Amino acid sequence: GDRCEILEDKSGKLTIDVILNDEYRKRFIKSANIIPNYGFTGSSYWVRLNLKNENVQPVTRLLEVAFPHLDLLEFYLLDESDGLLSYESSGRYYPYKKRVINHRNYVFQFTIPPGGQRYCYLRIKTSDAMIFPLSIWTVSSFIKKIQLENLFFGIYYGIILVMIFYNLFIYFSTRDRNYLLYVLFITFFGLFQLSMNGLSFQYLWPSNPWLGIHLIPVFIGMSCFFAGLFSMRFLNLALHTPVHYRLTQMLSAAGLTLSFASFFIGYSVSVIAGQILPTIMIFVAISASIPILKK
User: Fold this and answer.
1) How far apart are CA 21 and CA 275, in angstroms?
2) Can you give the C-alpha Rg of the chain in angstroms?
3) Mean pLDDT, rounded, for 212-240
4) Residue 2 has pLDDT above 70, yes or no
């Protein structure tokens, strides 16, 4: 990420032909961060990579953009004379099957001939946070990375499934609603994590980009809703701390409202709200538990 050069396109209308003009070539600035992060912005960003092959054999490399929530990516591979060698578009606006390489992140493959030089240009636009971690892999190292990822995700989501089924079993055995509320919270939280990792779009609704985008704030809101209901009932907030009880009621209602409103309001607004709401709920839950523990 810190080896690339970046150009901000505030108009969002610059094309590759314009970018290659001398006027714009000079405007690229070396990235100061390993992971470029520009927050929520209406600008498009161009990334430039200058790659050389000093070997006597051609090399194949994979450029990974490790943030699944980018709306549109356009990859251009150019030779030393700025001749276009290949073009590929990707992003979460497209059905998953359009991706050349089957991976939850965006991966572009290219080859550099012996002693050759290639320029990679990447145009990125998104309604989510403008974050684009960049890595270049050999094919073998990328395969090893995927294997480690799959192992980690298998363990992580396996634990979540065990928690869901275990607490569901206890609920059916005891009919204690606390367990049901906890199961619902864990379920929506797990779905949120799947969406954040790009796995839900890959496996659950690969043909529906609109659903994949808008369900993220829905899962956040429903997680907050059931977390609030669980906290109120499990901690008996109405009895021990009525102020926190009313606050948690309002925050739970806000979570439910967010889940439904996310289909109608702007995506950026719903995602920002989905970041603020859990933070407030955590603070309220901690402050409520302190006086209860003292009792």
Assistant:
1) 40
2) 23
3) 94
4) no
